[in-house]
């Protein structure tokens, strides 16, 4: 009687080796492209991270009828963490950096009408943003890191040494995919994005 044998349905050693080689080629090509795509999207979204802080500082000043400030602090990857603080000045008093009357992340400001349940500073870390060798931040004027807002949401004009622009420039390897962007805050407290590489009357240009 003729007996038929059935060939196993698993991979042979040769087939497995071919599959491993193909997978290795796909990974070698795909992983760098995927990494670049992720980094590009992080760089493009960095401006929104800082705009959120600028807008929140103005909004909280108006909401609480208080002075507010946005403070940028360099972190380990060369970007800026940000924090929004509030201050409730007494009549005839000022909110100064050395007076210790600003809110913190753990306690409301002195004079907060809501007392111990009042506004606590909002902190956001920039750890998820690309490092500074990929996306290069620069502030104007150089060395500044704070924007101050009045109770009506306008920038406090009595403070000369205040941040007026934050610029983000991509590294050379991302220059074809990510455009430079700058974030500015008008005296009316409105934060917006602009293109620092173009000049007026182009509508994308940054204000003077």
TrEMBL record:
| Keyword terms | Membrane, Transmembrane, Transmembrane helix
- Note whether Transmembrane helix occurs among the keywords: yes
* Membrane-spanning intervals of the chain: 12-31
Q: Name the InterPro entries on file.
A: N_methyl_site (IPR012902), Pilin-like (IPR045584)
UniProt superkingdom:
Bacteria
PROSITE patterns, per the entry: PROKAR_NTER_METHYL (PS00409)
Under Gene3D superfamilies, the record lists:
Glycoprotein, Type 4 Pilin
> Pfam families under this entry?
N_methyl
Q: Which NCBIfam families match?
A: IV_pilin_GFxxxE
Entry protein name: Prepilin-type N-terminal cleavage/methylation domain-containing protein
């Amino acid at each position: 009687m003729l007996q038929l044998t059935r060939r196993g349905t698993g991979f042979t050693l040769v087939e497995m080796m071919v599959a491993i080689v193909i997978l290795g080629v796909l990974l070698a090509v795909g992983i760098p492209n995927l990494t670049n795509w992720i980094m590009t999207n992080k760089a493009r979204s960095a401006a929104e991270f800082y705009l959120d802080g600028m807008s929140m500082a103005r909004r909280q000043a108006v909401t609480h009828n208080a002075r507010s400030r946005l403070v940028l602090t360099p972190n380990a990857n060369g970007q800026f963490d940000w924090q929004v603080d509030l201050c409730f000045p007494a009549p005839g008093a000022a909110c100064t950096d050395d007076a210790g009357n600003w809110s913190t992340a753990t306690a409301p400001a002195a004079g907060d009408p809501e007392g111990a349940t009042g506004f606590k500073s909002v902190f956001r870390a920039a750890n998820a943003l690309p490092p500074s060798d990929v996306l290069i931040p620069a502030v104007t004027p150089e060395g500044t890191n704070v924007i101050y807002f009045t109770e009506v949401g306008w920038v406090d004009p009595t403070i000369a040494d205040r941040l007026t622009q934050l610029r983000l420039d991509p590294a050379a390897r991302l220059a074809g995919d990510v455009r430079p962007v700058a974030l500015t805050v008008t005296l009316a407290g409105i934060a917006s994005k602009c293109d620092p590489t173009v000049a007026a009357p182009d509508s994308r240009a940054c204000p003077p």
